[in-house]
């Protein structure tokens, strides 16, 4: 046997196997937190993130063709896509921070002070937010929200290979950013 | 550096469980022999675990959450109303289809056949093989081509009137039960199809499903309404007749229409 840690890192991502059929409104509400987190990672600004999420929600409610399948598997990528379009429009409008243009790292944010037990959380948060937009986006989608490569490729409208190479680069950049900051001892994925 | 280290994406795909079963197996075999990849996997797993441990990274502000709930409440109500309407429409369509099917189920096969022939004639799919307004000429053609021995009547028109209906022509059709003759008339420019066949098989004409039944001169005339057309069927002396038109045939005696108000209403001399 290979003596490597089992790469079983799947934590409880929102499952779609609900027996009860939920309406689109309930499904949107269930994705709402994820939508906000995505917005935060895209723009790194709590106020702008709120605006983005509100606009995305209004667009989703006006959509003429919402997902036919009333399940999280379909509704969440659909909402992410709407949010991403809102964000890209916003970027074009403001002509700044366009993800495609700037792959250079933004300066790292100052650490937010937090409760003592939350120290690593802020280190990781700061490291993620210091990444270029496309990198922090792919980290959020894969490592935090648990989208599959295929789902990410679909959302970003790019080939699977691009997702894989971007994710590899983003993780190695993130690892370097986190180097020297120690992970809490004995912490395991739940 | 080994070639595997240049294919870093494979490490990530392995950790993310995105490798196909065969690739995964192959990679695991490689891992046994490659300490560099094992170390890379260990580092990567550690990083990914650390990231996942901080999930969720941000909390939704309560104000935004309550705003969303407020927005989604009327939206959800509208969706439910819409779904209810859609379900009602489907039910209604089903009921309509059922009632149509039930009423058509009672229409005899020969009425359905005659109506289809008439529709095809109207679309020009059944060109006439003989054109004439002379009954004696068409009678002869029917005898020669369809083996139908009958003499088409030549009703006198009422005094001072031109005859209301006019013979146009005929053609032979091949149907399942044998040849069928199609005779076409016109009344006020409106075509009337008359189908004639030898009544070798028993007719399935019955009062049920018919809009009306007229009894004249010992014959039963069944009137059907089907697909916007009206069909009158009757049998006489070994022949079956079906007459189809879009003209409204009502009143106590539908034959008055064609026979120009003939005195007795009896189809005189027809068939021979
Ligand atoms: Zn290797």
Would you give an account of this structure?
The complex is a heterodimer of chains A (190) and B (272). Chain A is an all-alpha fold and 190 residues long. Chain A has two domains: 21-101, Rna Polymerase Sigma Factor, Chain: A; 104-184, Arc Repressor Mutant, subunit A (Orthogonal Bundle), CATH 1.10.10.10. Chain A has helices spanning 24-43, 46-62, 72-94, 119-129, 133-144, 149-156, 160-178. In chain A, helix 1 packs parallel to helix 3. The radius of gyration of chain A is 18 Å and the shape is globular. Chain B is an alpha+beta fold and 272 residues long. Chain B has three domains: 20-58; 60-105; 109-259, Protein Transport Mog1p, Chain A (3-Layer(aba) Sandwich), CATH 3.40.1000. Chain B contains eight helices and eight strands, in the order H-H-H-H-H-H-E-H-E-E-E-E-E-E-E-H. In chain B, strand 6 and strand 7 (229-236) form a beta hairpin. At the A-B interface, helix 1, helix 2, helix 4, helix 5 and helix 7 of A face helix 2, helix 3, helix 4 and helix 5 of B. Bound molecules: zinc ion (ZN). Zinc ion binds next to helix 4 of chain B.
Question: What would you say about this model in short?
Answer:
The complex is a heterodimer of chains A (190) and B (272). Chain A has 190 residues and is an all-alpha fold.
Compute the number of structural domains of chain A: 2
Provide the residue-averaged pLDDT of chain B.
82
Q: What kind of sheet is the major sheet of chain B?
A: 8 strands, antiparallel
Q: List cofactors, ions and other ligands.
A: zinc ion
Structure annotation, total helices of chain B? 8
Tell me the Rg of chain B in angstroms. Answer: 39 Å
Number of strands of chain A: 0
- Largest interface: pair, residues per side: A-B, 56 and 47 residues
The profile of the biggest β sheet of chain A is: none
